Amino acid sequence: MRIALASDHAAIELKAALRDWLIEQGHEVADLGPETTDSVDYPDFGYKLAGVVADGTAERGIALCGSGIGISISMNRNPAVRCALVSEPLSASLAREHNDANCIAMGARLTGIDMAKACVTAFLETEFAGGRHQRRVNKLSNPSLAHEYTKDI
Predict the structure, then answer these.
(1) Is 83 a catalytic residue?
(2) Catalytic residue among 65, 83, 103, 119
(3) Which E.C. number(s) belong to this protein (predicted)?
(4) Which of 85, 86, 104, 148 is 20 to 30 A (C-alpha) from 76?
């Protein structure tokens, strides 16, 4: 599988560990940076990662920052990206199964390497269930598909 990773300065070590582990697992991996712990802005790297997932260069994306929150928000600004912030394997699996997530985000200050690997494994191995979930996933990228009653809120 073609997987792209990006982080901010707070997640350099976790990104490197996951990159090396994914390569060992036989995946084609693109590390979109950064390369040093010099301070950077997570939206820059979130947007970059979202772009390569949206255009199909990567099949899946892994976004990392200190908490995972900021980079996940920047990823989800791209309508072709469905990035779920996860901290354990069940949420990673459900993000794929129910939401057809093509990216996950994790916080390097909150998630250890073993748990991060377990999340990535669940994310990569779980298939999208489709069915009743497809209608909802379609609405994530196209809010105009939402029902009329949402306009009254």
Answers:
(1) no
(2) 65
(3) 5.3.1.6
(4) 148
Residue 75: phi and psi, rounded to 5, are -60, -45
Domain span at 57:
2-152
- 3-class secondary structure, 4: strand
Say how many domains are in the chain: 1
CA–CA distance, 56 with 83 (Å, rounded to integer): 15
Three-class SS of residue 37?
Answer: coil
Average pLDDT, the chain: 94
Say yes or no to pLDDT of 145 above 70: yes
The predicted model scores a pTM of 0.93
98 catalytic? Reply is yes
Please check whether residue 111 is in contact with residue 76, taking contact to mean a CB–CB distance below 8 angstroms.
no
pLDDT tens digits, 78-113? 999 999 999 999 999 999 999 999 999 999 999 999
